[in-house]
Design a protein that fits this description.
With about 280 residues, the chain is of the alpha/beta class. Helix content is about 40%, strand content about 25%. Strands 6-7-8-3-9-10 form a six-stranded mixed β-sheet, sandwiched between helices. The protein has a four-stranded antiparallel β-sheet with strand order 2-1-4-5, with helices on one face. Helix 2 crosses helix 3 and helix 2 runs parallel beside helix 4. The protein starts with a strand and ends with a helix. The protein binds adenosine-5'-triphosphate. Adenosine-5'-triphosphate binds next to strand 2 and helix 1. GO terms for molecular function: ATP binding; ATP hydrolysis activity. This is ABC transporter related protein.
Length: about 280
């Protein structure tokens, strides 16, 4: 059963002359997405990779109702998305925690907004912090937590409202490599229990393969879906999978689809810089 349906989504930004425009853009316009089609099944974990500027974040914003498409449509459970939906939650790269609230206060926040009573929301937030091994840090404020802990709190906060769709935009990009791998494992362990539908943007090919049921490779801007790769590695995914032949084969397949697009994005960027310096 389809949870998220993305059909023919285009996104064109009006920009000042020059700007980031590259070959193919109309004057004063920047086409970020040029007809993205993708459907995500309920309970599926889909990762999105693509060169810088391929429109991954813009697409996630449109699915999350934080931005609107110039044309095309996005629906969740058949309902067109025009504003942030109650059944979806977002996790950003920067922890985006409220600095004036403790860890538990942050996790409680979405429940508070929904009018859930104090005892119930405390209990739910406690359970979520425990899932992430943060029971002992509930009263700490964000500036008293490491980056990895802050991002655990941010994910716990996103899960507090039991979202049916979880949108994650490079949530582990700011973390060191070891912490990132640990968090990938923790996220999967929790996702195995809740099986919410996840759309996860990343620059990391290993991360994309390790987490996903399917990896979606985007083209260089203007972004469209270039290739979708099924990841048929067994679940639960334990760390040793990362060194298996199947994992490496999958990784290679993703890189083969991605590498030309990365080169193209770099050429376009050089073109922009040359145009800027010539004008
Ligand atoms: N508000 C905006 N106004 C103008 N252009 C924008 C705006 N938001 C994004 N863009 C442009 O749209 C394109 C796609 O941006 P987006 O951030 O989605 O790329 P991305 O694939 O997520 O890149 P990265 O991997 O570097 O985060 C880029 O060229 C970006 O400069």
């Amino acid at each position: 059963m389809e949870k998220i349906l993305i059909s023919g989504v285009r996104k064109v930004f009006r920009i000042k002359a020059g700007g980031d425009a590259a070959r193919g853009d109309e004057p004063g316009e920047l086409t970020a997405l040029d007809g993205v089609d993708l459907s995500v099944r309920a309970g599926e974990f889909v990762t999105l990779v693509g060169p810088s500027g391929s429109g991954k974040s813009v697409l996630l914003d449109i699915v999350g109702g934080l931005a609107s498409a110039s044309s095309g449509r996005v629906s969740i459970d058949g309902v067109e998305v025009h504003e942030p939906a109650r059944n979806s939650a977002y996790v950003f790269q920067q922890y985006a925690l409220f600095p004036w609230r403790s860890a538990i206060g942050n996790v409680e926040y979405p429940l508070e907004v929904r009018g859930v009573g104090k005892a119930e929301r405390r209990e739910k937030a406690r359970q979520l912090l425990a899932l992430f091994g943060l029971s002992g840090f509930a009263e700490r404020y964000p500036n008293q937590l490491s980056g990895g802990m802050q991002q655990r709190v941010a994910i716990a906060r996103a899960l507090a409202s039991d979202p049916e769709v979880l949108l994650m935009d490079e949530p582990f990009a700011a973390l060191d490599a070891q912490t990132r791998e640990i968090l990938q494992g923790e996220l999967l362990r929790i996702w195995e229990e809740i099986r919410t539908t996840v759309l996860f943007v990343t620059h990391g090919i290993d991360e994309a393969v390790f987490l996903a049921d399917r990896v979606v490779v985007m083209t260089a801007r203007p972004g469209v879906v270039k290739k979708i790769i099924d990841v048929e590695l067994p679940r639960p995914r334990l760390d040793h999978i990362r060194s298996s032949a199947e994992f490496n084969a999958c990784r290679r397949e993703v890189w083969e689809a991605l590498s030309d697009e990365v080169k193209k994005a770099q050429r376009d960027q050089e073109y922009v810089l040359e145009t800027e310096s010539a004008s």
